Amino acid sequence: MTNIQPIGDKIIVTPISKEQKMTETGIVLPETTNNHPQIGTVVAAGEGRILENGKIMPLAVKAGDKVLFRKFAGTEIDLDGHDETLLLMTERDVYGVIKKED
């Protein structure tokens, strides 16, 4: 839980860190060399995107959703009382919601 409420189409995501990979020769590849999309958990979401007619289109994601988002998406934010990394991004940075397996 976070003590900030995003507005509009903004969301706050806690990224799920990936393990570093090691090549056969022993070179460690940091996750920045990995061009795959990122995965994280939405911890807070705004009320929705404001349309040209003034109506609000609700977001497709909500707190608790596990999402796949664009590499380098969002802005890292540092809030007092949080040890984990938080990213502030727009819903447009999200490719999709990862469904739980049955």
What can you see in these coordinates?
- The structure is a single chain.
- The chain is mostly beta strands and 102 residues long.
- The chain has a domain of 71 residues: 10 Kd Chaperonin, Protein Cpn10, Chain O (Roll).
- The strands form 3 sheets. It has a 6-stranded antiparallel sheet, with no helix packed on it. It has a two-stranded antiparallel sheet with strand order 2-3.
- The chain is globular, with a radius of gyration of 16 Å.
- The two termini are 26 Å apart.
Helix-strand blueprint:
Elements: E1 10-15, E2 21-22, E3 28-29, E4 38-45, E5 49-50, E6 56-57, E7 66-69, E8 75-77, E9 86-90, E10 94-97
Antiparallel strand pairs: 1-4, 1-9, 2-3, 4-7, 5-6, 7-10, 8-9
Order of helices and strands: EEEEEEEEEE
Name the beta content range: 35-45%
The end-to-end span amounts to 26 Å
**Total helical elements:** 0
Q: Could you report the average pLDDT, rounded to the nearest whole number?
A: 84
CATH class of the domain at 1-17 and 32-62 and 80-102: Mainly Beta
Biggest sheet overview: 6 strands, antiparallel
Poorly predicted segments: none
Cα Rg: 16 Å
CATH topology of the domain at 1-17 and 32-62 and 80-102: 10 Kd Chaperonin, Protein Cpn10, Chain O
Q: In percent, how helical is the residue content? A: under 10%
Number of strands: 10
Q: Main sheet: which strands, in order across?
A: 8-9-1-4-7-10
